[in-house]
Design brief:
about 325 residues, alpha+beta, about 20% strand
């Protein structure tokens, strides 16, 4: 919209001083001719804007002119620019809107607070993608983009999903009542009720989404934060019925606890407390004996001591892998 573009030009000039018309056109994704027309509109509205030709020319404001919005402290300004590094706005398609908003905030800041805000964006970087994962591999829907899910959330409409559960080849169709979207560890989730019960749907497992004409049927007095708290507790308190005792080489204990710390049921030994080849015992819990197969990733640096059923499970897993590679090599 022209009004928004005029404000953006005004705030950019106020923040940057004299700016070439070509740079303004590039940042606002319009032609140079449009920029000059916008400058004429600003001048007609009483804004003291001028243009200067030549190698070092550009568009600027007369000294002393500024729009002023006060009230933000230096710490509040820093907080806004840290927020801009979180990455969630990219998944939601709000990169342009955020950039425009921050330009307006920067121009409105009292002059003494501007350097601190600028340094924040230069000194703080938040990368939401986990190690050894390609950007875009997580946190975005595999089927529809987040736009359709957003639309249903903000329009207060029911949502029809075609959804693929983990470990099941055939997709399932649901009609759900959405509360909102949650980004956790770079993965987006749809929080919704299904038949009046709270459910969590990973956005990257949504194969298709369609907003219906029906109004959403949320439970009275229940908000997104309430439902998310219930679902998070359910996930974090999955039953761990099988106690397992393992020993880990101390040289690998730190990495082991990073990956499997959520399954540890007793205070573990301190990493680095002894020679790397020594063993440290760790008490854990798993939902089923078969779940201990994940420990094979540590090879001979981890040994399951008990129970016997868990040890037999690892023997079967290792034998299956051995047969697979023996068959292929033959």
């Amino acid at each position: 919209m022209k009004a928004d573009r005029l404000l953006s030009i005004l705030l950019l000039l106020q923040t940057r001083g004299r700016v070439p018309a070509t740079e303004l056109a590039e940042r606002l994704e319009v032609s140079v001719r449009t920029i000059y027309r916008d400058v004429e509109s600003l001048s007609a509205a009483g804004v003291p804007v001028f243009t200067e030709r030549g190698r070092h020319g550009g568009i600027g404001l007369l000294p002393g002119y500024r729009t002023d919005v006060t009230g933000l402290t230096a710490d509040e300004a820093r907080a806004l620019f840290v927020l801009s590094a979180q990455g969630a706005h990219s998944d939601l398609g709000l990169d342009g809107a955020l950039g425009s908003a921050l330009r307006k905030v920067m121009a409105a800041l009292p002059a003494p607070h501007r350097p601190a805000a600028e340094r924040t964006s230069e000194r703080i970087l938040v990368d939401p993608v986990r190690w050894m994962q390609t950007p875009g591999a997580v946190g975005s829907a595999a089927g529809p983009d987040l736009g359709e899910l957003q639309y249903a959330v903000f329009a207060d409409r029911r949502l029809r999903l075609r959804y693929r559960h983990s470990g099941t080849p055939a997709p399932v169709e649901y009609t759900v009542d959405p509360y909102g979207l949650v980004s956790k560890a770079a993965v987006w989730y749809l929080v919704a009720d299904l038949h009046g019960e709270p459910r969590l749907f990973r956005a990257d497992r949504v194969l298709a989404a369609e907003t219906t004409e029906e109004s959403v049927r949320r439970r009275a007095g229940v908000g997104l934060g309430d439902v998310w708290a219930v679902l998070r507790e359910q996930v974090e308190r999955l039953p761990m019925d099988v106690p397992v005792r393992v020993r880990v080489r101390r040289g690998r204990l730190d990495m082991f606890l990073r990956i499997h710390g959520g399954r540890v049921t007793a205070p573990p030994p301190e990493p680095g407390a002894g020679p790397v080849e020594e063993w440290a015992e760790v008490t854990m819990a798993f939902p089923a004996p078969a779940a201990v197969r994940s420990l094979l990733a540590f090879g001979s640096d981890v040994e399951v001591l008990a129970p016997p059923a868990a040890r037999r499970e690892l023997v079967r897993a290792a034998a299956d892998a051995l047969r697979l590679y023996q068959d292929q090599s033959g």
